[in-house]
């Protein structure tokens, strides 16, 4: 049975439409031309847990590409009118990385749940707590969350829940949903005749406002009626309507090699261009989903090769932002692809903006310490980007809180 989310009347009272975005006031105008907009809209962050793909699609199909409008030139780096500010709330989650993170439009808070740390009292720990951020303070709201990290997750405006897909030890794929008060976990149903998608801790997921479903891209495996199971590196694309997984069959799919580790592919709803955008680290490959097929975007310049970056759509700016990660300086061997070793550099704290026509680097006056696999989401209620924690090296996580928005 499909879970019931906030009623249309409740969403209307909150000023939220059916894609989970605040309706701008009738008289709303941009505050500063080319700067942040006066009426921020909700955007999703999907902190990726893997790679995206397509069930029944052929990776070997001829590549169809769509060039970005400024693919022949790299937009210049620009000074930013916005800036980072560190906040010091009275309490905060423990240090962690790779947690579930999403903006909950119904409660108008950012939800952070689970995650891992490599420096707990007993060594590596996976958390089972859930916290909310109201724009100024953290509040712990549950200690019974799924103990997961680096898994596909997204806010679903249709159900009013934060949805997480994962696989318990020795179990089948399940979906856990946070309704603002409790977590509910159920076995994930699939369309008749189809096997479950198998993202495990891999894949990227975001809400698709066109189909009004969650879109999942996973590296596989999967299968179709009358066909044998696909190889482990066969990508697949699925939609989730709140109760059932439906396999999609695009002719062209991003290859499973577009990402490095399981958390290095990210998907966002780029509301400014109306595209579902998939970005792979460290390949720097970008793909868009039109509801039927994937198309590769070709753009020069942009962020250097990295893994563990954080990516979201900033509704106030009308651009996709990418922050941090850890540098990839080479491969061992040089021909290595997904699943093979690559040489890591140091953590990063640079900030980039994608506007559909190309990348440009932003240069705020202040920047958080370098990190990777951080928790980052756009807080529509405050019109700011929230950044929490992440890893500063392979064994140490941090628990600082930063916001990015209009400089004060």
Walk me through the topology:
Elements: H1 8-14, E1 65-67, E2 78-79, E3 82-87, E4 100-104, E5 109-113, E6 116-120, E7 123-126, E8 130-133, E9 138-142, E10 153-156, E11 161-166, E12 174-178, E13 183-187, E14 189-190, E15 204-208, E16 213-218, E17 236-240, E18 244-248, E19 265-270, E20 275-280, E21 285-289, E22 294-298, E23 306-307, E24 310-314, E25 319-331, E26 342-354, E27 359-363, E28 375-379, E29 384-391, E30 397-406
Parallel strand pairs: 1-22, 2-27, 14-18
Antiparallel strand pairs: 3-30, 4-5, 5-8, 6-7, 8-9, 10-11, 11-12, 12-13, 15-16, 16-17, 17-18, 19-20, 20-21, 21-22, 23-25, 24-25, 25-26, 26-27, 28-29, 29-30
Describe the structure.
This protein has a single domain, classed as Kelch-type beta propeller (Neuraminidase, 6 Propeller), CATH 2.120.10. The strands form 7 sheets. Strands 2, 23, 24, 25, 26 and 27 form a 6-stranded mixed β-sheet that branches. A 5-stranded mixed β-sheet has the order 1-22-21-20-19, with no helix packed on it. A 5-stranded mixed β-sheet has the order 14-18-17-16-15, with no helix packed on it. With about 400 residues, the chain is mostly beta strands.
């Amino acid at each position: 049975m499909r879970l019931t989310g906030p009623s249309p009347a409740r969403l209307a009272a909150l000023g939220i439409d059916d894609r989970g975005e605040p309706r701008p006031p009738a008289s709303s105008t941009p505050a500063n031309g080319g700067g942040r907009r006066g009426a921020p809209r909700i955007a999703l962050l999907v902190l990726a847990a893997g790679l995206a793909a397509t069930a029944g699609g052929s990776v070997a199909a001829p590549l169809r590409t769509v060039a970005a409008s400024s693919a022949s030139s790299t937009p210049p780096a620009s000074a930013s009118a916005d800036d980072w500010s560190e906040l010091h709330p009275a309490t905060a989650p423990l240090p962690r990385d790779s947690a579930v993170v999403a903006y909950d439009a119904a409660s108008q808070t950012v939800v952070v749940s689970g995650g891992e740390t490599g420096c707990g009292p007993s060594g590596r720990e996976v958390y089972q707590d859930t916290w909310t951020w109201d724009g100024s303070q953290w509040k712990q709201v549950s200690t019974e969350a799924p103990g997961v990290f680096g898994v596909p997750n997204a806010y679903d405006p249709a159900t009013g829940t934060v949805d997480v897909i994962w696989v318990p030890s020795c179990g089948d794929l399940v979906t856990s949903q946070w309704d603002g008060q409790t977590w509910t976990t159920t076995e994930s149903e699939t369309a008749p005749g189809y096997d479950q998608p198998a993202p495990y801790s891999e894949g990227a997921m975001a809400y698709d406002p066109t189909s009004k479903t969650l879109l999942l891209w996973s590296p596989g495996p999967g299968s179709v009626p009358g066909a044998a199971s696909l190889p482990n590196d066969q990508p697949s694309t699925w939609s989730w309507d709140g109760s059932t997984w439906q396999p999609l069959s695009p002719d062209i799919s991003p290859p499973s090699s577009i990402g490095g580790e399981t958390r290095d592919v990210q998907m966002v709803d780029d509301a400014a261009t109306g595209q579902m955008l998939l970005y792979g680290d460290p390949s720097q490959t970008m793909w868009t989903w039109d509801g039927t097929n994937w198309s590769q975007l070709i753009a020069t310049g942009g962020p250097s090769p990295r893994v563990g970056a954080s990516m979201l759509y900033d509704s106030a700016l009308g651009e996709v932002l990418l922050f941090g990660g850890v540098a990839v300086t080479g491969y061992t061997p040089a021909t290595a692809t997904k699943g093979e070793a690559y040489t890591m550099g140091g953590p990063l704290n640079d900030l980039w903006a994608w506007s559909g026509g190309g990348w440009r680097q932003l240069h705020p006056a202040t920047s958080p310490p370098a990190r990777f696999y951080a928790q980052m989401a756009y807080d529509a209620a405050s019109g700011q980007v929230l950044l929490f924690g992440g890893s500063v090296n392979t064994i140490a996580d941090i628990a600082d809180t930063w916001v990015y928005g209009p400089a004060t």
